[in-house]
Each structure stands twice: as structure tokens, then as C-alpha cells.
């Protein structure tokens, strides 16, 4: 803004000076003009008005500079407070501990590195031979009493066992068991052929334990259920199979004259 103002003043002053000079040249006032013999023209200059001179002086004067503001004074930092010195704790003198007596310097044991002399092993003492035991004298066989009860056991699918009584001398126990087992297998085979699965059992499986009394000629004397299959229809079917078998094969000749009891197992598969 200031530069624009100064430029306007400068142009105004310059225009005024030119206009003043032009007027002075054209006006006869304040100027004497004469022409000599030589025909020369004379020009007389007059001083400019005071107002115009003031404008020129103001234009030529250097622009006033604004005063520089004083720099604000910065507060001086206060001196750091001196640290307060704390009182030093009083150090109590420690009493010297009881002095331990120096350990006795025991002499290091000397190890004997020499190999030990092997000790001779004692000779084993001979074991005394056992004295031979005296053999027992064989006892004479006792004749079997005529009223001795004999038991016959058989094997096979039925697991049959039987008892027989006889008044005549019998075979050995092994022979009796073998003959009875063969006969029980024949009886069980005849019962199995007469066995029929009952419809009332409705597909259930089971095993029925029976006890049969049979004479040596193969006649059925008694039959009873010793173990149920868990369904009455299966138990009845087992008893009916025994009764339908009728007369069984007779006992072997060596077992004639005796009566036998057999334990049989009849199985049903649904």
C-alpha cells in the first residue's frame, strides 16, 4: 500500500514539473525576452512554487522505517536448588566371629594297590549217596466181593455215566468204563434219531439234561429232567424223544445181568 502511494506522488510531482516548465516557456510573465542583434533567444528560469518543491522533497526523501520492537526479555532460570545432604547412618562395628580351630590335617590313607592274593577255593565235599529205599512187597490181589457196587462211566456226545450192580465177579474198572461208554453212545444215537424240534420253542436254542434208567437187555426203566433248557417245550421234546426210541440196544455180554443209570444231554438248535 505504501509503495502504491509513493508511486502516485512521484507521478504527480513529475507531471507538475513538466507542466510548470511548459508554462514558463509559453508565458511572457516573469521572463524577459529580448532579441539581440544576433537574433539569439534568451530564456529565463524561475524558481518553482513552494508547494511543488515540498512534494519533490517528500518524494526524494527515503521511506521511514518502522521502529524495531524490543525483544521480550526471557526469564532467567532459577538456580537449581542444592540437594539436601542426608545424614549418614552410623555404622556399628561388627564383632569378630568366633574363630574356628583349624581342621586337623589328618594324614591321607594310603591305599594298598597291590593285587590281593587269591584265596584257594575249598574243595567241594562229596555228597553222600542216598541209601536205596526198600521196595514195598506186592500185596496179593483181593478177590472182589460178590456184592461190590461198580460204577460205569462213558464218553461221547452224551457224556453218559452209569451204575451197575451184580453179584458175579466183574471186569476191571477200565474195561467196564470202555464197554459202558460204547453202549451209552448207541443209546444216545437212537434218541437223536427220534428227536424233533418243537414249534412252540420258536427258534430258541437249548440243552436238556436227562437221567435214564436202562436194564442190561435195553429196556427203558425211567427218565427224568435233571437240567432244564429254559423253555418247557424243549424239555418235553427231549423226554418224548427218549420214549419214542422204544427199546434200546442190549448191553455188551460182559455187562449182562446189571442195571445202569445214564446222564445224557439232548441239544436243540433253533
UniProtKB/TrEMBL annotation:
<feature type="domain" description="TonB C-terminal">
    <location>
        <begin position="182"/>
        <end position="270"/>
    </location>
</feature>
<dbReference type="GO" id="GO:0015031">
    <property type="term" value="P:protein transport"/>
</dbReference>
<dbReference type="GO" id="GO:0031992">
    <property type="term" value="F:energy transducer activity"/>
</dbReference>
<keyword id="KW-0732">Signal</keyword>
<dbReference type="InterPro" id="IPR051045">
    <property type="entry name" value="TonB-dependent_transducer"/>
</dbReference>
<dbReference type="GO" id="GO:0015891">
    <property type="term" value="P:siderophore transport"/>
</dbReference>
<keyword id="KW-0812">Transmembrane</keyword>
<keyword id="KW-0472">Membrane</keyword>
<keyword id="KW-1003">Cell membrane</keyword>
<feature type="region of interest" description="Disordered">
    <location>
        <begin position="62"/>
        <end position="177"/>
    </location>
</feature>
<dbReference type="InterPro" id="IPR006260">
    <property type="entry name" value="TonB/TolA_C"/>
</dbReference>
<keyword id="KW-0653">Protein transport</keyword>
<feature type="compositionally biased region" description="Pro residues">
    <location>
        <begin position="95"/>
        <end position="104"/>
    </location>
</feature>
<comment type="function">
    <text>Interacts with outer membrane receptor proteins that carry out high-affinity binding and energy dependent uptake into the periplasmic space of specific substrates. It could act to transduce energy from the cytoplasmic membrane to specific energy-requiring processes in the outer membrane, resulting in the release into the periplasm of ligands bound by these outer membrane proteins.</text>
</comment>
<dbReference type="GO" id="GO:0055085">
    <property type="term" value="P:transmembrane transport"/>
</dbReference>
<dbReference type="InterPro" id="IPR003538">
    <property type="entry name" value="TonB"/>
</dbReference>
<feature type="compositionally biased region" description="Basic and acidic residues">
    <location>
        <begin position="122"/>
        <end position="134"/>
    </location>
</feature>
<keyword id="KW-0813">Transport</keyword>
<feature type="signal peptide">
    <location>
        <begin position="1"/>
        <end position="26"/>
    </location>
</feature>
<comment type="similarity">
    <text>Belongs to the TonB family.</text>
</comment>
<protein>
    <recommendedName>
        <fullName>Protein TonB</fullName>
    </recommendedName>
</protein>
<feature type="compositionally biased region" description="Low complexity">
    <location>
        <begin position="76"/>
        <end position="94"/>
    </location>
</feature>
<dbReference type="GO" id="GO:0030288">
    <property type="term" value="C:outer membrane-bounded periplasmic space"/>
</dbReference>
<feature type="compositionally biased region" description="Low complexity">
    <location>
        <begin position="105"/>
        <end position="116"/>
    </location>
</feature>
<feature type="compositionally biased region" description="Pro residues">
    <location>
        <begin position="64"/>
        <end position="75"/>
    </location>
</feature>
<feature type="compositionally biased region" description="Low complexity">
    <location>
        <begin position="144"/>
        <end position="170"/>
    </location>
</feature>
<dbReference type="Pfam" id="PF03544">
    <property type="entry name" value="TonB_C"/>
</dbReference>
<keyword id="KW-0735">Signal-anchor</keyword>
<dbReference type="GO" id="GO:0098797">
    <property type="term" value="C:plasma membrane protein complex"/>
</dbReference>
<dbReference type="InterPro" id="IPR037682">
    <property type="entry name" value="TonB_C"/>
</dbReference>
<keyword id="KW-0997">Cell inner membrane</keyword>
<keyword id="KW-1133">Transmembrane helix</keyword>
